C-alpha cells in the first residue's frame, strides 16, 4: 500500500506529467526506428556519409556556381515550396484515453498538459521549417538576389503562417468530421495558403510588410491557443487526433510491409462488367487479361504504377540534353517492365491461379502479352514527352507512337531473356 501511495506523488504538477509523456513519445519513435534496423550502427553507416555528402553539396551551393536548371526556376517556386513545407505538420497535445478518469476532472492539469503540448508542437514545426528554409536559402540569395532583410522577414512570416495553419487544421479536425471538415478546409486552410503565396510575391519589394504580417499571425496563433484551451466537449476527438499523430511514423514504416485493408465493394471501379480484355478465347490471352484486371483493380499496385508514371514525367521534363534524356527514358521503360514481370510472377504463383493446369508455353505467352499491354500506356506517354521536349514538333507528332510501339515490343522481349531464372 505504501508503494501505491507514493506512486501518486510521482507527478506533483502538470509539467512533470508532460515531461513523462514527452519522454514516452520519444521512446516510441526510437522503438519504431529500431524496428527498421536492430543495430544503431546501421543508422550511423547511413547518417555519417549522408551528413558529409549533404554538407559538401550545401557548401557548394554557397561557394560554387549554382546548377544550370536553377536559372530556369521562377521566383514563385520559392513561396510555393515553403507553403507545402508549412502545411506538413500538426498539433500534438499529448493527451491519453486514461485522462478521462482523473485529469479531465482537474481542468488546470488538462490545460497545462495541452498548453505545453501546443508549444512543443509549434517549436518542432518551427525547427523543421527553419531547416528546410536553410536548404532553400542559397537559391533565394544567389539565384534571386534577395537581401538579408527579405530572407529574415520571409522566414518569420512562414513560421507564423505555419502556426496559424496548424491551429486552423487542428480546430477543424477536433470539432467536425466528414464532408463538413472538407468544406471548412476551403476557407480556413486552402484560401490562407493561397494568400500566403500571394503576399510573399506582392511584398517581395517591401519585406517590412512581411515582418508586420508575421507579428499579426503570431498574435493570431496565440489567440487560437487561448481558444483551444477554452474549448469543451472535444476530448475524445483530441485523443483520436493525438493517436493519429503519434502513430504517423509507425504507419509510414508499416506501409511498405503491410497492405492497407481493402474496402469490400459489390463492384469494382474498373472493369465493372468483367468483360474479357482480349477478344480471343485462347488460354494465353485469357490468363493475360486476368492478370491485367488483377493489377488494375488492386489499389496499391495501381497507385504505384501511377506514381512511377508521375515521377517519370517530372524526370523527363527536366532541362537535360536529349542524349541523356534518351538514356533515362530507356532506363525508365526497363524498370517498369522489370516490375511488371515481378507482378506477373506473383500473379501466376497465386494459390487460385496455380490450381489451373497452365502449359509452360501458354504461361510464357500470357506473361509477355500482359506486360506489353500494361507497358503500352506508359510507353506512349513517356515517348510523347521525350520527343515533344527534344525534337522538332512535326517529327514528334509522327514519331512518338511508333517509338512507343518499338519500346513495347522490344523491352519485354529483352527483359525476358535476362529473367529466365524465373520459372515459367
TrEMBL record:
Any matching Pfam family:
EcsB
The domain of life is: Bacteria
Q: Where are the transmembrane segments?
A: 42-61, 73-96, 117-136, 148-167, 183-203, 209-227, 326-345, 366-387, 393-412
Q: Is Transmembrane given among the entry's keywords?
A: yes
Keywords on this record? Membrane, Transmembrane, Transmembrane helix
Is-annotated flag, keyword tRNA processing?
no
For this protein, the record's InterPro entries field holds: EcsB_ABC
Q: What is this protein called?
A: ABC transporter permease
Amino acid at each position: 500500500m505504501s508503494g501505491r501511495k507514493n506512486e501518486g506523488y510521482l507527478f506533483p504538477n502538470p509539467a512533470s506529467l508532460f515531461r513523462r509523456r514527452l519522454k514516452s513519445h520519444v521512446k516510441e519513435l526510437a522503438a519504431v526506428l529500431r524496428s527498421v534496423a536492430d543495430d544503431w550502427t546501421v543508422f550511423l553507416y547511413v547518417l555519417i556519409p549522408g551528413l558529409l555528402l549533404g554538407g559538401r553539396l550545401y557548401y557548394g551551393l554557397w561557394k560554387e556556381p549554382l546548377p544550370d536548371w536553377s536559372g530556369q526556376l521562377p521566383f514563385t517556386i520559392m513561396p510555393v515550396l515553403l507553403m507545402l513545407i508549412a502545411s506538413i505538420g500538426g498539433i500534438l497535445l499529448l493527451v491519453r484515453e486514461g485522462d478521462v478518469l482523473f485529469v479531465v476532472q482537474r481542468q488546470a492539469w488538462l490545460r497545462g498538459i495541452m498548453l505545453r503540448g501546443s508549444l512543443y508542437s509549434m517549436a518542432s514545426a518551427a525547427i523543421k521549417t527553419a531547416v528546410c528554409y536553410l536548404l532553400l536559402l542559397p537559391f533565394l540569395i544567389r539565384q534571386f538576389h534577395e537581401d538579408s532583410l527579405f530572407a529574415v522577414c520571409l522566414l518569420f512570416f512562414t513560421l507564423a503562417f505555419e502556426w496559424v495553419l496548424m491551429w486552423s487544421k487542428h480546430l477543424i479536425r477536433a470539432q467536425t468530421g466528414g464532408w463538413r471538415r472538407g468544406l471548412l478546409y476551403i476557407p480556413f486552410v486552402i484560401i490562407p495558403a493561397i494568400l500566403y503565396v500571394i503576399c510573399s510575391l506582392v511584398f517581395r519589394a517591401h519585406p517590412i510588410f512581411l515582418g508586420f504580417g508575421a507579428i499579426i499571425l503570431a498574435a493570431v496563433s496565440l489567440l487560437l491557443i487561448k481558444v483551444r484551451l477554452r474549448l469543451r466537449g472535444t476530448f475524445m476527438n483530441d485523443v483520436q487526433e493525438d493517436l493519429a499523430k503519434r502513430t504517423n511514423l509507425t504507419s509510414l514504416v508499416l506501409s511498405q510491409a503491410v497492405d492497407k485493408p481493402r474496402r469490400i465493394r459489390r463492384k469494382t471501379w474498373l472493369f465493372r462488367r468483367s468483360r474479357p480484355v482480349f477478344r480471343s478465347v485462347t488460354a494465353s490471352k485469357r490468363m493475360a487479361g486476368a492478370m491485367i484486371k488483377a493489377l488494375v483493380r488492386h489499389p496499391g499496385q495501381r497507385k504505384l504504377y501511377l506514381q512511377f508514371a508521375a515521377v517519370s514525367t517530372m524526370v523527363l521534363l527536366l532541362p537535360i540534353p536529349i542524349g541523356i534524356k534518351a538514356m533515362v527514358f530507356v532506363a525508365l521503360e526497363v524498370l517498369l517492365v522489370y516490375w511488371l514481370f515481378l507482378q506477373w510472377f506473383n500473379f501466376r504463383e497465386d494459390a487460385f491461379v496455380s490450381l489451373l493446369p497452365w502449359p509452360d508455353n501458354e504461361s510464357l505467352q500470357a506473361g509477355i502479352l500482359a506486360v506489353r499491354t500494361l507497358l503500352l500506356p506508359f510507353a506512349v506517354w513517356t515517348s510523347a514527352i521525350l520527343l515533344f521536349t527534344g525534337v522538332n514538333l512535326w517529327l514528334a507528332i509522327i514519331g512518338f507512337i511508333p517509338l512507343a510501339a518499338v519500346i513495347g515490343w522490344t523491352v519485354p522481349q529483352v527483359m525476358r531473356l535476362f529473367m529466365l531464372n524465373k520459372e515459367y
